[in-house]
Amino acid sequence: MSHQQVNKSANRSIVVIGLQESKSTTPSIRVGEDKAAIEDVLNLLGVESPFVSYRMGKYDPTAKGCRLLKIVFGASKFQRITLAEWKRHRVEMKKEAKWSRLLIRPSLTREQLEAEKIERTKKRDEYNKRMSVNVTERTKNH
């Protein structure tokens, strides 16, 4: 697959984190349950689009967490709609126990994930530094 094809696919894709994985030992049942769960999420978000989905990584019934779920839409506009609606509805949706750990993000390359991680760390460090300066200044004033 060329770099351009991968990029085009990524623009049409999202990754769903925290969607409960089926305990069935039958692969087709697990796939069917994943599809139904994704349809529930997309229906709540008001997204009408056919999609292809698959769990990333090897199935391990002894694993604690659930595998990431990749969803590839037919067009990039459905990715944008899904992400926008998720941003709008996520607080309300997370109140339901089955979606309390749900997170939806765009599909990213390893390099993009690493860059975002570095950026988050940088922002967290800057925030912590500001907070410690504020505490020091308040302590001096008293």
TrEMBL record:
Q: What is this protein called?
A: Uncharacterized protein
Protein species of origin: Meloidogyne incognita
